Amino acid sequence: MTRDDSATMLTMLHEIAPGTVLREGVDRILRGRTGAIIVLGWDPAVESISSGGFDLDVELNATRLRELSKMDGAVIVDRARGRIRRANVQLMPSTSIETTESGMRHRTAQRTAKQTGHPVISVSQSMGTVALYVGDYHHVVTESAAVLAKGDLALTALERYRARLDELLATFTALEVEDVVTVRDVVTVVQRMEMLRRISADVESAAVQAGVDGQLLRLQHDDLMMGVAAERRLLVRDYVPSGAWSDVRVTLDSLSSADLVDLSVIARSMRLGGPGGADLDTAASPRGHRLIAKIPRLPEAVARAIVGHFDSLQSLLAATTDELQAVEGVGRARAFAVREGLGRVAETSLT
Fold first, then answer.
1. What pLDDT does 3 receive?
2. Full set of structural domains in the chain with CATH
C-alpha cells in the first residue's frame, strides 16, 4: 500500500468507526438487510461515471443514508461538506480496470475506487459484511468487539517488546559510555525499535477502527510508545552520516518483516558495516545526540550545538566546564548543568 493510500485508509477507518454518522448509517443498512454502495467523494471524476438517479445536496445523517440505500443505485456523499449529493445512481466505471471481486456490487465498488481515487463503501446484502475500498486495496469492516480483541492481543505483544527494548537500551547506553559499541549492537536496537513500531501500527489501527470504544486501547498504546520515536530519531543521528538521516529513516520504514530478521540488511539500510552491511563487528562511535537529550531542560538547539562542537560522545564526556562554555549559547551555569548531567547519565548506565 502506498503512503497516500495508507493515510487515506486510516482516515476512513476513523470516519466509519463506531460513534460516527457513517458507521451508524452503515449499521442501519446492515440491520435492514439491504445492500449499498456509498461513494465518499464528489468531483468531475465521479460525475463522469454516474448515470441516472437524482440530485439532493442534503445534510448527511444516518437515517437518510439508510433510506436512500433501499434503492438499487449508489449514494454519493460529499465528504468535505458532509452532504449527500446524489442517490439511486448507476455507476459505470471502466470494465478494463482489474478487480479481485466476484459479486457485482463489490466489483463496481472496487473499480469506482480505483478510477476516481475516492473511498467507496460496499455493504453486502447476502453476506452482511461491509467492505471499504481505497485505491487498489480494500478492508473488511468488523464489529468493534472483534477489533478490540485483536487490539488487546497486539497490545500484549507491544508491552513485551517495549520491555525488551528498554533492557536493550540500558545495556546499549553502558556500551556507548565505555566506547565499545559495534555495528551489531546498533542494528540490534534498531531492529527491536522497528518491530515495536510495526506492532504499534496494529494497535493504533485497532483503536481507530473501534472508535469511541477504543479510547482505553489508544491511551495504553500512547503510554507504551512514549519516547520511542525520539529515541529512534536520535539513534539515527548518532550513527548515520549527517546528510543521510532522512533517507535512512525512509528506508527503515520500507523494510519488510523478512528484511528485519537480517541484521545485515538493517546495517546496509543505515549505511553501516561496510559494503553490504556484512561486517557487523566493526566498531561504531556515537556522536552523543541520544545521551545529551537525557539532560533535563536543555534546549534542543543548544544540545545540537554542543554535539556538533565535540562530534563524538567520548570527547563530550571528557569535556570540562570551560570547554563546554566555548560552545555558543552555553553559559557557565548551563555548562555546569551539562557536565553534571552527563556524569549522572554515565554513572547510572554503568551501575
1. 58
2. 3-141 (3.40.1700.10), 145-277 (1.20.1260.110), 289-350 (1.10.150.20)
